[in-house]
Design brief:
With 414 residues, this protein is an alpha/beta fold. It has 15 helices and 12 strands. It folds into 2 domains: 5-103, Outer Surface Protein A, domain 3; 119-413, Protocatechuate 4,5-dioxygenase, Chain B, CATH 3.40.830. Strand 11 and strand 12 (405-413) form a beta hairpin.
């Protein structure tokens, strides 16, 4: 870092920062959700306060002074510069280097034949035959009966987990078994998944979604029409997050499996924070979401539609920045989930949102936005009150000590 750069005010990009121990030394692992550079940067926990000062308001000397003030220890200015240089080299700062890397990655993403599979060979088999055997094995363990197609409305919806299959497999099997007939008959599938690191309420892509069975083609005419409704910048600014976000990939694989490898047009939608567009009562603050959902309904025409909300429930414990959970805490969490699931069965998007907003989303329910948008999208086509039916629930460990958990459930909406 040059003397001139020493007086710039660095700002961290949105990162996934988690504790990490290596060779007995405690670090924070800085993972870039967009993977603009390879690997994960390890920062000693003793230097962690410097990361909080990378907020765009402090230059390197000011960061060193704040460290001395709040930590009560001296720090070599060269150490601060070395940390900032490492952050810069790994494209973890908001600057020209990361902008250029993002543009290059986006170009490669957009020119590929389809969105590459992020988790194939890691969370599920990359080979189609092996994947078929694996998922059929999960389905064989479910005692849920498929709902006959004649009992599904023209627009039907499901809540599916997006946790890894190893932990959430039984819940995946239960909900996709229940929706098997609709999944096979659907002429359009709207996939609405959690954008874990994005703030935009809607992020689209023109890319098709690949699975080991082939390609699920994106309904590009719908993407273009929605983009015309919102403006391209609003829905494509974060498009690269589709590449490394797992929430849509994991449900797309199940969809393609239930269709026995037959393709179907899909509309992949990532959704982040809704606060700027939805108030605490679950009502729209402006017309953006209402107009986009209405446009999707119009463009679907007379097609049979499946809407998939890809979302998990609570994320609690040290793995998510909270206190360790004991047995009593986990039982209380399950009771709270049960109450939310009962409320969700009423099929009211505003009521669902209001229930979670009332606690400030204290349980870190990452399915909040996908479920809300799914319910609002289904409201008008149903022409009657929606009803939800639960299929499956699991409390999944999220750390080796079993003091952190993720909870998941499946549900149909019609």
């Amino acid at each position: 870092m040059t003397a001139a750069q020493n007086h710039f005010c660095p700002r961290l990009r949105p990162l996934d920062i988690r504790p990490h121990v290596q060779d007995g030394v405690e670090y924070f692992a800085l993972h870039d959700p967009l993977q603009l550079a390879e690997g994960t940067l390890l920062v000693p926990q003793t230097l962690a306060p410097l990361l909080t000062f990378c907020d765009g308001a402090h230059d390197a000397p000011a960061m060193a002074a704040l460290f001395r003030r709040y930590v009560g220890q001296d720090i070599d200015g060269q150490m601060v510069q070395s940390l900032l240089a490492a952050l810069d080299e790994n494209c973890l700062l908001e600057n020209a280097r990361s902008d250029e890397a993002a543009a290059s990655c986006l170009q490669l993403y957009r020119t590929a034949a389809a969105r590459p599979m992020l988790l194939a060979g890691r969370s599920y088999p990359a080979d189609a035959d092996a994947l078929r055997h694996y998922l059929d094995g999960l389905l064989a363990g479910s005692d849920v009966e498929p709902l006959p197609l004649a009992e599904w409305p023209r627009w039907g919806g499901v809540l599916s987990p997006h946790i890894d299959y190893a932990r959430g497999g039984r819940v995946y099997a239960d909900i996709w078994q229940r929706a098997a007939d609709l999944a096979r008959a659907a002429e359009l599938v709207v996939l609405i998944g959690t954008d874990h690191y994005g703030a935009a309420p809607l992020t689209l892509t023109r890319q098709h979604y690949a699975t080991p069975y082939g390609v699920l083609p994106t309904a590009r005419e719908m993407v273009e029409a929605v983009a015309a409704e919102t403006g391209e910048e609003a829905v494509f600014a974060g498009e690269l997050r589709h590449r490394d976000e797992h929430s849509l990939e994991l449900v797309a694989v199940w969809l393609h499996h239930m269709r026995r490898g037959e393709p179907v047009p899909v509309l992949p939608v990532l959704t982040g924070l809704l606060d700027a567009h939805v108030n605490a009562s679950g009502q729209y603050r402006d017309e953006l979401l209402a107009d986009v959902l209405a446009r999707i309904r119009d463009l679907a025409g007379s097609r049979r539609v499946l809407v998939v909300a890809s979302g998990d429930l609570a994320h609690m414990g040290p793995a998510f920045g909270g206190a360790p959970l004991n047995g009593r805490d986990q039982r209380a969490l399950q009771r709270a989930d049960e109450e939310l699931l009962v409320q969700m069965q009423t099929g009211s998007g505003p009521d669902f949102y209001r229930t979670i907003a009332a606690t400030g989303n204290a349980r870190n329910i990452c399915g909040l936005a996908p479920v809300y948008l799914t319910l609002r999208l289904l409201e008008e086509p149903s022409r009657q009150p929606l009803h939800g039916e639960q299929f499956g629930y699991a409390v999944c460990p999220a750390d080796p000590q079993n003091t952190s958990v993720v909870t998941v459930a499946g549900m149909t909406f019609m």
